[in-house]
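[User]
Protein folding is very new to me. Any chance you could explain this protein sequence and its structure tokens? I have pasted everything here:
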Amino acid sequence: MITEIDQTDEKTARDIQSIQRPAYRIEAELMGFHDIPHISETIEEIQQSQETFLGYRDDYLKGFISFKEEGGIAEIYRLVVDPLQFRQGIARSLVDHFLQQTHAAEVIVSTGTANVPARKLYESFGFKEEETFEVAPGVTCTQFRLVH
């Protein structure tokens, strides 16, 4: 079940961190870049986030998507699935749910260029590659946009 979750709640922030760290470590390996900020994000930083979080829960938090929406544009900041739950359709369900509930005319998301599974997921929803930018020497991210 996908519902809005409250990252300001300490237990929820701990749940977010517990799946966020290992998931972003996998992306870091794919990218060859180990300074992804969400890997070292503290509980307090998660609690202070101004993003809206939607969580996929079964008997526990298995994944989440976070975003900000302003001026008709929504930006996805995080799409995270517990690595033990990869390839179960959770990321697809989260993106689909988000796209159905957002009122934004456009949606933007960035991911590591080397993160082929994420790129394919966004492209399958109709996101178009917009630009590639360097985040560290030899390490790039790709931004995608969907006119909704």
Remarks:
- The chain has a mean pLDDT of 92.
- Helices lie at 10-31, 43-48, 90-101, 116-124.
- The longest strand covers residues 61-70.
- The chain has one domain: 2-147.
